[in-house]
Amino acid sequence: MVGEASTAADDYHSVSAAPHPSAQEDASVTEPDQSTDPWGRVSEDGSVYVRTSDGERKVGQWPDGDPAEALAFFRKRYDALAFEVDLLEQRVQAGALGPDEATSAVDKVRSTVSEAQAVGDLDGLMARLDALTGTIDVRREQRRAERAKKLEAARTDKERIAAEAERLAEGHDWRNGANRLRQLLDEWKSLPRLEKSVDDSLWRRFSSARTTYTRRRKAHFAELNEKRGASAEVKERLANEAEELAGSTDWGATSSRYRELMRQWKAAGPAPRGQEDQLWKRFRGAQDTFFGARDAANAQLDQEFAANAEKKEALLVEAEALLPVTDLAAARASFREIAERWDAAGKVPRDRVKELEGRLRKVEQAIRGVEDDRWRRSNPEARARAADTVAQLEASIADLQAAHDKAVAAGNTKKAEEHAAALEARSSWLTEARKALDDFTP
User: Fold this and answer.
1) Is the confidence at residue 33, as pLDDT, over 60?
2) On the CB side of 333, how many CA atoms lie within 13 Å of its CA?
3) Percent of the chain whose predicted confidence (pLDDT) is above 70
4) Which of 83, 105, 132, 221 maximizes the CB count within 10 A of its CB?
5) DSSP readout, 77-144?
6) In angstroms, rounded to a whole number, what is the distance separating the alpha carbons of residues 69 and 25?
7) Where are the domains of the chain?
């Protein structure tokens, strides 16, 4: 808008530069002043004045023509200035300009208004500009408060970042720690700078923590690489031994040795990745070769042992026919003979062992149970203990009965009731004791 006002001023100078013909012919002719605007007037000599609180100020010369036209011309200049002030107010109130930028713009427009060759309420424009200065001051304070708030939040965030970095520096999260520190650095960079001493202090904490973490991480992986190198040597030896055993036919001993080699392999820890994969392929391949051969041999044996299983199934039919046991001696003798033939029948397929052995064991346990029961019932010592228990209970009951009768005769109801309860309990015990005694064979 300043540019538009300047253009208007140029127009004015081009107009005032050409002297009016009548003024050249008779400059002494005096005409009355004409004023058609509350903010300005045109004098009889064509001078245009604007009215301000400081008095009138000449703003131009209109040598010829209607004074109304002169005032209209200079009012247009005022309208351009007013438009510029309107626009500046809108931008300041909308916050489109920073306080310093807005102050500079106001000063520039104020200078233009104070020297404007225009007719209008220039004092009003100056008052509006003064009001904008107050608005800008308020905005400046608001921004200062907002910045202080942001800086306080930034300080809190940077203290948090430094503290978290220090925790990471003392930890052992080597996988995620480095990534997290990079994230914290990006977060730090996005925050505004604080007061130099505070910002520098927090940065030293953060930077020192990153350095400590990096140093410890490098030391950890250096040590890990050293251990992996040692692990590679161990696993090289284990792979060599596994390959040497791959052709063995000593199934039992070699199987046990492979289990021990696997235990040592796990205990050795990881080797460098490339070597680890290569060594494991060798180690696993040797095991697969051995156990594949063992399984094939066992499968062949299982076929050979199938006939033995059929023999043992026939023996189980004979053994299970001995149950239930009616003649213990005969059953014992028959089972002994069946067991001898069972052993002579030989091995059976591995998947049949549990089933067949279980059925035979069930018959053996049944015969042994009958034998144990007979021994228990014919044990003279146990029968004597049972008889002694019956005798003791009978004597105790007799004593209690006498005491009960005596209490009744004496009228001692309480004692009589106590003896009656004891008699009832011992009578129950005596019944069970006599059943136990009757279980013994004479």
Assistant:
1) no
2) 5
3) 90
4) 132
5) HHHHHHHHHHHHHHHHHTT-S-HHHHHHHHHHHHHHHHT----S-HHHHHHHHHHHHHHHHHHHHHHH
6) 23
7) 2-145, 152-224, 228-300, 305-378, 380-438
